[in-house]
Amino acid sequence: MRIVKWIIVGLLVLTLGALLHYTLPRHEIVRIVGVETRLETFGINRFFYASVPSGAGEADSRDVRYIETFRPTGREIVFRNEDTGWGWPPYFKMNSADMQARARDMVSSSADPLWVRVTYYGVRSRMLSIYPNAIRLRPAEGPEESTIPWSRIIGLIGLAVLAFWVWRVLRRFRRRRVEPFMEATAERTASARGRWRRFWDRLRGRG
Length: 207
Hints:
Blueprint: H1 2-23, E1 26-41, E2 61-70, E3 76-80, H2 96-105, E4 115-121, E5 133-139, H3 150-206
């Protein structure tokens, strides 16, 4: 039983860690080499793209904006550029068209690079055709610019504070409600067992 308990706890921790890794913002220093809008056909990867606008209906394919970049190491990374709206994650991004124009203006070559700091969330999967979503662009001082993930740190601290508050509330509820109820139930059960034993003893004595 203890093994099953730890397996469940481990799965919950892994699920929470994966959710936080996908949702919390990260940063990359990159050089933008191109922007494009192409028709994307969705399958099981639909969950990792923005929701269809209200009233538009569910579509198997639609246009998606992309920003093509290279890291200082020479490795490529492609971002999608989609609004998050009021859904999840709660970045309230509604300026994807403006960001596409800004990204087009930041396109540069390897001979004369313009380094850009991209704030994004999500993961890249070539097998499932999943791309991280860019939520902010700004010029960087250079390829070696330090990127302290303040948003990520603040988000983790906020979640820790929330988890501690929930734990305190549940602990107080247990002390005030659950434990007295369990004690009262145990007393009633013990009293009922005592009455049953006395009744049974009287029956046996008569026999």
